[in-house]
Amino acid sequence: MMDIKSDKQHIYWNPYLGGFLLGIILIMTFFFTGRGLGASGAAKAIVTQTVHTVAPTHTENNAYYSDQFLGGKVPISNWLVFEVIGVVAGAFISGSLSGRVFFRVQHSPKITARKRLWFALLGGALFGFGAQFAKGCTSGAALSGMTVLSLGGYIAMLSIFGGAFLFAYFFRKLWL
Amino acid sequence: MGPLIPEILSDQWNNIIAIITGMAFGFVLESSGFSSSRKLVGVFYGYDFAVLRVFFTAAVTASIGLLFMDYFGWIDMAALDGLPARVWPIIVGGLIMGLGFVTGGFCPGTCITAIGIGKLDGYMFFGGIILGVFVFSEMFPLFENFYNSSNLGDVTVPEYFNINPYWFTVGVSIIAIVAFYAVMLIQKRIKSVEY
């Protein structure tokens, strides 16, 4: 594996180029499907489908789960599940071209890998929980919402980034 | 004319387009360095502003593009999915997500790109999301009233403040350019972090 790593590992695109291309992808997505990009919705589909398989009456009695079955829909065949499979593949291709594909834990040298993993789990749990209140995360609620000038999208962007700036000081030892 | 589904392309195309779109999305995010948590959180500590630059450029580019396409009659912007403005649930959810961002170092989309290149912290973050969604879903009856509260509907910012959408987008673009210039100055003053 080692020889696949290359010295291009830490060289990324110009952020304005990346942003411009991401904007074009958003336009095309809206043009083809009428909807935007997302990510947390795929996790919601996985959870709902799993719970439904284990305890079908339980999901029928909970409005949050049962709403996802309305009109005979199958949560796991949600658009976002397919999109997220694509994201894994796209990231793998990009990472492979720059020699960034190998298993590791990325963390600040001042904390241990174990600590990084526990905080990643905690952060994921908070993000997943919060995204349910907002009906979307940074991509689905904030970015896609802002693209169509949606008030909800702008509120989501301001509160996600505002919240992160607000709490950043308390967790600086994890990163700096 | 647009959106093409379901009027011009059949619904069956939807999942195929989802995978292609996802691949492009993942490729661009990863190439921009968004699979690195230490690069992402740099924006909150002032040592790397890639998140701000990519995010704002994408939002402004896409808004301008859609407004032009709407103007030319290629797409009906009013028919696109917006995010209904449930003001307080979005603010509370957003703040919780912000806390998740600085503790976990990813957001859901970027953690998927980290998974794609083998970062175990990305896998853990995704496990966390599953856990968070499960806990929320199970506790939903407790939040149901709040969840559906303060809903202003699927309204745009220009509609809500009764301003011209074109001028609004010009304003956002100017704010973005000023922000790009400001972070360039800030970055010069802050000690760089090796990662």
Automatic annotation (TrEMBL), chain A:
Keyword Lipoprotein appears in the UniProt entry: no
Major localization class: membrane
Protein's cellular compartments: Cell inner membrane
Record key words, sorted: Cell inner membrane, Cell membrane, Membrane, Transmembrane, Transmembrane helix, Transport
One Pfam family recorded for the sequence: Sulf_transp
InterPro entries from the UniProt entry: Sulf_transp_TsuA/YedE
Membrane topology: Multi-pass membrane protein
Bilayer-crossing regions: 12-32, 76-97, 117-134, 146-171
Signal sequence bounds: none
GO cellular component: plasma membrane
Record family assignment: Belongs to the TsuA/YedE (TC 9.B.102) family.
PANTHER family xref list: INNER MEMBRANE PROTEIN YEDE, SULPHUR TRANSPORT DOMAIN-CONTAINING PROTEIN
Name of the protein in question: Uncharacterized protein
TrEMBL record, chain B:
TM region positions: 12-29, 50-75, 87-111, 123-143, 163-186
A GO term for molecular function: transferase activity
Classification via InterPro entries: Sulf_transp_TsuA/YedE
A Pfam family assignment: Sulf_transp
Annotated keywords: Membrane, Transferase, Transmembrane, Transmembrane helix
This protein's name: Sulfurtransferase
Origin species: Flavobacterium alvei
Phylogenetic lineage: Bacteria, Pseudomonadati, Bacteroidota, Flavobacteriia, Flavobacteriales
